[in-house]
Amino acid sequence: MGKEKTDGFYQIYEVFSKRNHKADFQHQFSLLAPNKEMAFVMAQENFMRREPVVDIWVVKRDDIRMMQPEERQIVNRLDNKDYRLTKGYGYLRKKWRQYEQQMLDEKEIMSWGEDGKPSKKKTK
After folding, report:
1. H/E element, 14
2. What is the pLDDT of residues 55-80, one digit of tens each?
3. What CATH number corresponds to the domain at position 30?
4. Is residue 112 in a domain?
5. Is residue 29 in a domain?
6. Which InterPro entries does this UniProt record tie to the protein (predicted)?
7. Is 22 among the domain residues?
8. Where is pLDDT greater, at 114 or 78?
9. What gap in Å lies between CA 99 and CA 10, rounded to an integer?
10. Cα–Cα–Cα angle for 84, 87, 91, rounded to 5 degrees
C-alpha cells in the first residue's frame, strides 16, 4: 500500500480480526514489528486480550496489493450495472394492473351462452 519510511529493521503489519464464526474479517490497526512472528504475538497481546475474537490475521503491508490508477479506470468503465438492479422493472406493476383490469371475472364468464358469447338475458 503506502511506502512509509522505517529504519529497515521494523516493518509495518496490518491486523484483521473476526469476532465470531459468522462475522467477516475487519481491519483493526497497523503495527511495527521486526518479523511476522513478533507481529503476530504483538497483535495478540494488544488486541485479543481486550476483545472477544475467534481468528486473527496479521499481514505485512508490502504484501497487500492495491489497484493502480490505470486499473481504476477499467473498473469505472465496468461500473454500469444498472441492468442488475430491480428498479428497472418497476413498470411491470403498472402493466400487471392493466392486465388484471382487462381479465374477465367469473360472473361475466358464467353469463355467456353456449356459443361463447354473452347471453342477452337480463338478470334481475
Report:
1. strand 11-18
2. 999 999 999 998 888 887 777 665 56
3. 3.10.20
4. no
5. yes
6. PaaB, PaaB_sf
7. yes
8. 114
9. 71
10. 125
Which residue, 45, 65, 70, 64, is CA-closest to 56? 45
Per the structure, the complete domain to which residue 23 belongs is given by 11-63
The reply to whether 28 falls in a domain is yes
Is residue 37 a contact partner of residue 65, using CB atoms and an 8 Å limit? Answer: no
DSSP string, 69-105: HHHHHHHHHTT--GGGSGGGGTHHHHHHHHHHHHSPP
Q: Is residue 57 a contact partner of residue 16, using CB atoms and an 8 Å limit? A: yes
Full-prediction pTM beyond 0.70? no
Number of domains observed in the structure of the chain: 1
Question: Is 26 exposed, middle or buried (CB count within 10 Å of its CB: 0-12, 13-18, 19+)?
Answer: exposed
Distance CA 20, CA 55 (A): 8
State residue 67's pLDDT score: 86
3-state secondary structure of 58: strand
CA–CA–CA angle 87, 23, 68 (5° rounding): 65
